[in-house]
Request: fold
Amino acid sequence: MSIDCTSTSVSELTRLLHEKFGLSNFRAGQLAVIQRLLDGKSAAAIFPTGGGKSLCYQFPAILLDGLTLVVSPLMALMREQVDTLVGLGISAGRLDSSLSAEEARQVMQGVRAGETKLLYVAPERFFNERFREFISGIPISLFAIDEAHCISQWGHNFRPDYLKLTKIARQLGAERVLALTATATPTVLDDIRREFSIAPEDAVQTEFYRSNLTLRFTLCQQKTRDGVLIERIRSQAAASTLVYVTLQKTAESVAEKLVAAGIDARPYHAGLEDEQRRATQDWFMQSDRGVVVATIAFGMGVDKSNIRAIYHYNPSKSIENLAQEIGRAGRDGQPAVCETLLVPEDRVVLENFAYGDTPGLQSVRRFVEFLVGQPERFYVSYYSLAYDADMRDTVVRTLMTYLELQEVLEATAPRYETYKFKPKVASTDILKQFDGERRQFASSVLALSVKKKIWFEISLPQAADRLKCDRARIAKMLDYFAEKGWVELQVTGLVFGYRKLKPITDIDSLSQDLYQVSLDREIGELTRLDELYLLMCADSCQSALLSQHFGQPHTGECGHCSVCEGAGIDELPEPDYPRVGDSATTGIRRLSREKPDLLGDARQQARFLCGLSSPKMIRARLTQEPLYGCCSAIPFDRVIEALTT
Reply:
């Protein structure tokens, strides 16, 4: 579209909004963000959930010459937005794990030809060297990062991969950057602006408070909570409803109870097959009265305007999570109810999530010893290192990122170690396409590929060693085969490259530092949980407190929260927790003698008793021991105390 972006009037932009998107007016903040981007500036959009963030990159995309690359961790958002844009006649595509090889190839062809205006990818897509080589040759006018709060170490959902996006945007030569989030506290917003070089005046923040949402926190007992939920859903007029739970098994059991009560409900969680999750999502989008009982896996990026009620069967993990989840209600501006059914015993489960990610000092030392044993440039599988050090792979990523921030390590390009391909034409027909040395090289690559049932498999490091060549040459040849349609290609064995910037001379000191980093993350999670409970049990307007948390002073009372309605929780009763029995302490001592490497200290033992697994614990089948999880209803610190006194 030929248009001078820098001189386009508001009336012209509004005309295009109606012509291309069928909308009459811009919503709060949208025009301010769009104008900054059209002026060539980078910007941030901090709008509440449902506030119209996506238009802030979709609209400029149709005016800018190059590609708008949208980075989002939400597959549901990618799928829904691409379908919507295509329906509007706007060329958009996505690259995600649900696409077949042929579908992905067609998307890439559209981008390469300059026909596609928007391309949606997950942050992990940049781990794929094939994609990085492909996208590096594409002019990128706008690099948009959804869920940008994930870049902040102080945020409620820190994702180490997000810190790499700033460097990637620079490497790709992106002309401008747009960071989008619904849940940025002032501290998190400062991080976002600093990382993406966004001027303070180019961070556009709209009002967080939404007057159409009734915010309630209701004290319940475990034995009566199901009945309260059923009564709530029955009492409301037939309407779309979300019920949020903490655990996958709870999603299943609550959905079953609702169905038994005559309510049309379905579970949704990450443990279900992709097809079943998609079917549930599609059903919910089309239904006017469906109820989905879900973990937080549901709702991210799902744009359904008429959700009338959101119930938290279990509390959220933080104020930020709560704000994001209740923000899915009442997007049409009509009244909606958001209610948490607060059972005191639930807090133990939420606290254990925080404790579950904290490795022991022994595990951290193994992690450091691995790094010491590596050459200056090395590759590492997070999955393998997580097992060897006996910590979750998310913790490995976080610790590696910390070492990058401390300039101990520098990340280099990731790569895949193993290529798998399924021939679509005979190998002789492939070789006919080459002459001389190239034919000999292609023949050698095919000869080194091992035939499995259907697919051929080749280890690139081993093949490169045998052929005395760079592995990149082998990868490029196989990519070329796939591009020509001669083979269907898959890649596995993702490893991440690093370069040491400083020698690690003191293993004990670095191990202690990294262990403290893990403890600080744990304290941060527990602090966020404390803040949530203070909000739920507050004695002043909870809507005002929610706005204040996000740096927006809200004066007066809302009139539609638990406190304003005179139904606040005066005091949360202390649960009658069971004690750590003698059988637990005696049994764990016996197991620790048998498995000293896995249960050698009190923290490892407490994790086991509270049902918090680790990679080696699972491999050693310790999770099948009768004692595993026997203290899951007891606070973690009380279990530690029982083991150390």
User: Anything to note?
Assistant: The chain has a mean pLDDT of 92. Residues 232 and 403 are 49 Å apart (CA to CA). DSSP finds 27 helices and 18 strands in the chain.
